[in-house]
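Worked problem 6 (solution included).
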Amino acid sequence: MQMNECCDRISDLPDSVIHHILSFLPIKDVIRTSFLSSRWRYLWASVPSLYFDGFVFSPKTKFVKFVDSVLLRRNGSGIQKFCLRFSDYYCETSHACSWISTAVSHNVQELSVYYYPREHFALPICLFELPMCLFRCKSLRVLKLNLYESILNLPPSIHLPFLNTLHLISVTFSDNNLTRKLFSNCPALKEVILEDCTVRDLSVLHISSLSIERLTIDGLPRDVVLYSGSFDHEIKISAPRLLSIKYINYKGQNICLEKAPSLVDAAIYLNTEWNESNQICCRRMINFLRDLSNTKILMVSSQRAQLLSVASNMLGSFPKFFHLNHLKLAVAVTSNNIRLITCFLNSAPDLEFLTIDIFRLRWSNREEDSEPQNVPLARVIDHLKDIKITGFGGNKDELVLVKFLLENATVLERMTIVPSKLLFNDSELRMKISQEIQMYPSASSNVVMFS
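Solution. The predicted structure is:
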């Protein structure tokens, strides 16, 4: 029996499968499939994912007509994902509000809006207002807004009962009471991501929620001073169910974690150029570390991590981490940072795993490294079992650190040293350094070395 060469296997697929295939195509191409056959004529009108990008239209005036036309012909099926990317250069925000309202009426589950104001550097800052129906949408699960530094104008009444994820990018907050409602009036909210967000005329930004489990705060934009005249504001977090927090700091703003008894994982990235004389910033970071005392996994990344040890001197004591099991540090290994590492080891009695990812300082190389100074006296470390050091270059400070850990970690089972690219390519030097490390005395008779 000869097979029919004209067999259309794709058209025989269920609507749900075809919709999934169409979700990977631009909406213009999706509509073009209506000309394939009678089977495809109306499928485009019920695709669950809609992505409208105004920047691909020429002339720009066609964009509004196109979106209006697509939504007008939309059948009664629900919308799973609705993404809108536009600029008010060719599209009024009133059009966007109308389209978002249509998505809400079709029980939208995931909404993404990317708004680029025409005069985003002009003062006053642009206001962006979403339709009120969105803030009472019972179907919405994910909300992502990128407002290009515009102020998010929130309504007085907010209740999103099933919102699970809130991702705000380049959003400016100006009303603390309404901002509080945005977080607290979403009882199912699990994840919040604030990326390059700013505050205007606010001294404190409150993030309060009984449901949030994962929180990411990606600092402030570097030019925030253009708007508020100061970046000296406070972030207060009250989230008793918080499990994970990621904090990327650029300006040294004050952050306070008021309630987080369930915290498991914390990551701090100090991407800042603080001056070592700036005692306020140092104190703020040490106090924030104290707020993380319940965490089991802690990541600290900074090219100036030595400021933490400087701050601990100022405050008289280093924070205690009684539940910390795994410490991850991404730092340059200098004499000051060796001291910081020992501060962590002395303050975390249950620490079993230590990971150190070594930064290479731009102004330093192996030949220029000075003799390590102020390295703490050896003391017994009776809890550390596994150490991994990556990016190891073999300079004096790094060798001092390895020697210190081997001599004092009494229950150490494994130390893994991964050479930097430069050291890896120098086989003769790598062999010399490896032999030197093998000669170091070890407090544990069970330690196994890998490299």
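Discussion: The longest strand covers residues 142-153.
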